[in-house]
Design a protein that fits this description.
CATH class of the largest domain: Mainly Beta
Radius of gyration: 29 Å
Helix content: under 10%
Shape: elongated
Largest sheet: 6 strands, antiparallel
CATH topology of the largest domain: Immunoglobulin-like
Number of helices: 1
Length: 226
Amino acid sequence: MKLRTAVLPALAAVALLAPATAPAATLTVDKPCYGPGEQVRFTGAGFTPSGQVALSVSGQQLGIGTADPAGGFGVGIGAPTIDGKQRTDVFIATDQTNLALTATVPVLLTSLNVNVTPRNGNPGRTKKIVARGFTSGATLYAHVRRNGAKRNIRIGRLKGACKGLTARRKLFSTDAKSGVYKVQFDTKRKYSAKTVPQVAFRVTVFRTARPASASASSGERWVQIR
């Protein structure tokens, strides 16, 4: 009993002198998904104070920055254009003073696309609209423009991490005038040719040839999306 009593205080003293475990480095981003060219904002913490930190992805170094006196840093890079619908890239921050000190973060990337079907037929026909990659807004709109004619159509609420939707809407009236229209999809209620991101189509509305037996006032207008 005396031996155990004498040893325990000594062990306690050793425990008090043991160094605390250093906190692990961290790397985070500010959004769940990014579209082409959108700024991916990285925030790091727990690195060597005022030391250099390298950022890389898929074995390719993107650059080296300097941490602040608290060991943190912030940097933004443009999201790449990708093939396919979505992919996840894992980014790595590596402390250049202590190469064993690293942090990773997965970044979900999306392409930007709007698919409208059917692509031809009567202009008043309801279209199926499938969109993705509008990560900077909450609602998708279609803006129809031709000379002085203009129409703004609310397509629907964007959902999911990469902001997409599937909806059915009429983009033109049945008696739409013949001509070439611009249809621009974006997340702004009001139209601007400078809005980003955007997906735009040229749509040709034309009148088909009348059958020989038809009256002079007959004939159908058709639309073709390019």
